[in-house]
Amino acid sequence: AKQRGKAGFVRYVDGLGEPVLAHMQLGGELRRALDNDELQVVYQPILRLEDQRVTGVEALVRWQHPTRGAIRPAEFIPAAEQTGLIVPLGRFVLREACRQAAAWSAEFGPDALPEAGVNVSARQLHDPDFVADVAAALADSGLPCERLVLEVTESAVLRGQQVSRTLFELDRMGIRLALDDFGTGESSLSLLRAFPATIVKLDKSFVDGIEIDDGQPAAADARRAVARAVIQLAHALGLATVAEGVESPEQAAVLRELGYTLGQGYHLAQPMTAEDVSRLLARQRLD
Ligand code: C2E
Ligand code: CA
Ligand code: CA
Ligand code: CA
């Protein structure tokens, strides 16, 4: 694999694959993107399955590259994590989402949009300034603590003492924590006891195919087994749930039958600009 040496020449480094080099190049561009306002935040509504009312949003970052066009987070978040740029990037998304959620609350009333979710990477949880950054974003925006949901994945949470302390501190501040992509990790169950989550987000992979009737009696239906187990566990532990990746009305119906009340997915609402969320909330106010 090639890598730029100290003097700027390209040398070959054992064990450093092409992805690392690609991450370093992308990292340089990302630094520039942060300075040049090329990053935007879009919002995907979270809806009540029963009546399709919006109860929250998840903030999702977008990169509008001047020559390459729109770049998806899956392509640059790993590079941002590897280079540490996820810290300023995450701070930008957090501040923007808090400011926007506070603006919605002022315009449509505090109950119009109870929750704003922001994704947080493991690297951010290791940053000693993270708790102070979150506190500052809340104070500067005026958003009440309980309106902010920080979404963390199981692998991020499993990073030891420091991360655990940070999560308990956020919980003590009244900020809500969601376990993202729930069910895809290796120790979901033990984590739920050890970690101050109040929300679990059922991963899309357990929603895929959930509507297919394979002729089994419901209780023996393997396609629904994980979704059913997760909702039972959530109820037993007093946690809220959100089903992710809901792509059809049939899936929404099965999830409702299983006891899920909240959903997120292309069938319910696509990620959209803040202006489009405002339009949705304005329409909802009339209902
Ligand atoms: P995630 O946190 O699981 O976010 C949900 C992803 O699923 C989003 O992709 C969303 O657009 C997509 N999605 C929503 N509904 C559907 C559906 O019905 N079908 C399908 N196929 N996909 C759906 P997106 O925006 O491309 O983000 C991908 C991942 O990048 C996110 O997954 C999250 O892990 C990460 N990410 C996005 N924004 C941020 C950020 O600001 N900070 C950090 N640390 N990570 C972020
Ligand atoms: Ca998420
Ligand atoms: Ca997720
Ligand atoms: Ca995911």
Automatic annotation (TrEMBL):
Top-level taxon: Bacteria
Residue ranges of domain EAL in the record: 23-285
Name listed for the protein in its UniProt record: Diguanylate cyclase/phosphodiesterase
Range of the intact protein held here: 472 to 758 of 781
